[in-house]
Structure formats: C-alpha cells, structure tokens
Amino acid sequence: MSLRLFIAVNFSLETRKMLLAFRDGLRFRTERGRFTAPENLHLTLVFLGNCDAGQTNAAKRSMNALRFEPFTITINGGGYLDRGRANLVFCELQNDSGRNQLSQLHAALALSLSAKGFKLERRKFWPHLTIGREVVWKEFDDSAAAGGIDFPRLEEAVTSLELMKSERINGKLTYTAIHSVKAEQ
Questions:
Q1: Where residue 57 sits, what CATH number does that domain have?
Q2: Which domain holds residue 90?
Q3: What is the edge-to-edge ordering of all strands in the sheet holding 3-10?
Q4: Contacts for 66 with CB less than 8 Å, ≥ 6 apart
Q5: CB of 59 closer than 8 Å to CB of 99
Q6: For residue 169, what are the contacts with CB-CB under 8 A and spacing of at least 6?
Q7: CB 81 within 8 Å of CB 87
Q8: Total count of domains within the chain
Q9: Model pTM?
Q10: How far lies 88's CA from each of 2, 19, 29, 146, in Å?
Q11: pLDDT digits 0-9 by tens, 96-107
Q12: Nearest residue to 156 via CA among 97, 71, 87
C-alpha cells in the first residue's frame, strides 16, 4: 500500500489560533479560494510523495539520524503569488538564524533521503505556510499584488519534526503524523 508523505514542522495551538485569525481575516477579502483547514496548518520541510512500506521506513531512519537542538522560527509576513488559476496566499519566515537552521535540517534530510533513493523536488527550499490556494480577491489591491499582506509577527519553537501522511477521508484532506523525532534537550 502506498502512502502520500511529507516531513513537516507542526505548530502549537496558540500559533494555529493566530494563523487562523489571519486566514479568516483574508477570507473576507476574497470571492473564493481553498483555505487550509486549522488542523492542516504546517510547514513542509521535505515532500516525499507516494511511498511504499520500504520507503516509509527509510524516511523514518533518515529522520531518526537527525540531531538538532530546539530553535525558534519567526513567521513575519504574508504574501500572495499570482499563479494564474492556482493563486497562493502564504505566510513566510523571517530571514534569521531560525530560518537558517530550518534550511540546514532540510539539506541534511534531502541528502540522506536522496542517498536512500528518494527522488526529491529540485526547486530551491522555500520555507512557508500555505494559507490558501486558488484565491480570487474581491478587490485586488496593490498591497496583495506586492506580497504585502499584513501579518503579525509570530515565534514558534521547533522541538520536533513529524512524518505526515496525507489522505482524503470522507472527501476531506487530512494530515496525520505517523512518526516523530524530537530535538535534543
């Protein structure tokens, strides 16, 4: 059986509440869009795609080999990418030491996973949180076009990484953690 998998940073309840307030505020400015469900808010570190049991175990081994101390990432801004039909609203990380540590974890995982035969995306790692897809604005303004969507600064401690399974349950996209590694204290 094949599982659709990715490795992610999940957020605390408090951070999720703030992200939801931001998401819901944006909804009033849109005609339509597919907005991320509260329980699915995360930051993808590495997308693995469809994996069999052997690949799932290899991904777990790569995660288990990671050594990292807790660190903090700062979510400090929102933006909008005009991709035609697939317009994207996102929150972005501040370019600081937390973002650098996240990039280092991504690179270490990518190296380990590639050595185990995974075919990973070749595009540059862009740490962000997707808030909405296929978003159509009621009145498109210059601030949205410039990626200048107002967003409060949030800090989140990264103390673990999760291997997430993505599936549709009763027509609803559901993400479930199937493996976790914790930072060294």
A1: 3.90.1140.10
A2: 3-182
A3: 42-51, 3-10, 160-169, 172-182
A4: 105, 108, 109, 161, 181
A5: no
A6: none
A7: yes
A8: 1
A9: 0.90
A10: 28, 15, 14, 13
A11: 899 999 999 999
A12: 71
Q: Is the pLDDT higher at 92 or at 103?
A: 103
Nearest to 43 by CA among 74, 68, 14: 74
Q: Is the pLDDT of residue 89 over 60?
A: yes
Task: Pull the structure tokens for residue 118.
Answer: 């995974």
Given this model, what pLDDT does residue 79 score? Answer: 80
Tokens 């949030």 map to which residue? 154
Residue ranges in the chain assigned as alpha helix (H): 13-27, 53-64, 97-115, 142-145
What three-state secondary structure class fits 159?
Answer: coil
Helix (H, G, I), strand (E, B) or coil at 94: coil
Summarize pLDDT for 115-144 with one digit per residue, the tens: 999 999 888 999 999 999 888 877 765 555
